[in-house]
Amino acid sequence: MPAPILEDPAAQALADAPPRAAPANLRDLFWSFTWLALQGFGGVLAVVQRELVEKKRWLTNEEFIEDWAVAQIMPGPNVVNLSITIGERYFGWRGAVVAVCGMLCFPMLLVLCLTVAYAQFSDLPAVAGALRGMGAVAAGLVAGMGMKLAGSLTRHPLGRWCSAALALASFIAMAVLRIPLAWVLLVVGGAGCVLTWRKLAP
Known about the structure:
Elements: H1 9-16, H2 26-39, H3 44-55, H4 61-73, H5 78-121, H6 125-149, H7 160-176, H8 181-200
């Protein structure tokens, strides 16, 4: 009697996974990023992760973390950089242009209207209080999203504790020591890149 064939669990999980979703066409890409941008009041990171990973499934959590890290170290707004990356990945340079247009066109019109309204009513105490409240909500959204994505660190090559130490070092450098972001990326981010490269090197 032949011995049973043992399948690789990772390969089996990959085979059983649902097919990767993708934008159907350039129109789908444009309106998806337009809708994403119109939801991004304050805590845009939470909105981006929910739309692209949980709803549309264009990215996995691990891919989202990698792409977001690249978007953060590039000049310009993070979410715009991410839209360029995803648009180019699916439709080349046309996708990059369409994704950026989706991110900017309607939000720009909305911001212009809100700017005119704010100029008229900014002296009202109720408006100032509302803006402070929105700032607190935005901070909570970012903190909650960080906790949601922390589970992906268990699958990082450096392991849970080393990844947590790098995240803690970044928090202390920026929030406590007030070190400029460029230096934090260079020192802490560079250390993470070097450690990961050494871990993966044959």
